[in-house]
Amino acid sequence: MKKIYLFLFALLFSNTQVIAQKIFSEGVIKYDVFINNNANPDGTYVITFKSGFIKRALTMNNGFDNVTIYNKKTGKTLSFNVKDENKYALEITENELKEKNTRFQKAIYKSIDRSKKIAGYQCEGSMVAYENKDETQLFYTSELIPQIENFNTQFPGLKGIALEYETKTTSTNTMKFVATLIELKVIDSRVFMIPDNYKIITKKELSQLK
């Protein structure tokens, strides 16, 4: 009888662990964006995810409005500025994307003795250091696990999703992202299509236009 109780306890504990973690396969995460630790948000950053598609929309109060759409099947990313007069969507190849993100390689994480709840999810604090000597603090939740590695571009190998973090934009400027909303919901596939009036061009073609 004692063995049966131990088995039931282990089974209950195992089920609790499974319920605590969810694969983030479809939904939206919205962040407020703060430049140089301003008290009020300077913009918003919205990540929309569905299967192998990731859409990232950065909309700033100064008028900057950029969208990138990643397709896991092709390995390519399309990037365009919503308010540009020239309606071009830059095609970024998988190799070009890897080269762009080399500064985030060999990330090393070190836990810090801080935790907080962000957008309804329990988050643990951590410091991350990169090969180029840059480092930053983040708070991430392990309750949600991204379905594909490319979701965590800035935090390779992270066992969860960062809901608060900073990134350097220049040597003197930083952008802080704080999640305000997480929705696990069905996403219309049309969200990941670029507008009809945009022309897809390569990096080489773009340089020839300048």
* Rg on CA atoms, Å: 20 Å
Unreliable stretches covering 5 or more consecutive residues:
1-19
Order of helices and strands: HEEEEEEEHEEEEEEEH
Instruction: Give the helix tally.
Output: 3
CATH structural class: Mainly Beta
Shape: globular
Can you tell me the CATH architecture?
A: Clam
Named CATH topology: outer membrane lipoprotein receptor (LolB), chain A
- Number of beta-strand segments: 14
Helix content: 10-25%
Major pleated sheet = 12 strands, mixed
Q: Considering the protein shown, what is the CATH homologous superfamily?
A: Lipoprotein localisation LolA/LolB/LppX
Strand content: over 45%
How many structural domains does the protein architecture include?
1
Task: Compute the separation of the termini in Å.
Answer: 78 Å
| Helix-strand category | alpha+beta
Mean pLDDT: 89
Describe this entry's structure for a reader.
- The chain has one domain: outer membrane lipoprotein receptor (LolB), chain A (Clam), CATH 2.50.20.10.
- About 15% of the residues lie in helices and about 45% in strands.
- It is built from 3 helices and 14 strands.
- The protein has a 12-stranded mixed sheet.
- A hairpin with a 4-residue loop joins β5 and β6.
- The longest helix is centred in the first third of the chain and has 19 residues.
- The N terminus is likely disordered.
What's this, in brief?
The protein has 210 residues and is α+β, with helices and mostly antiparallel strands.
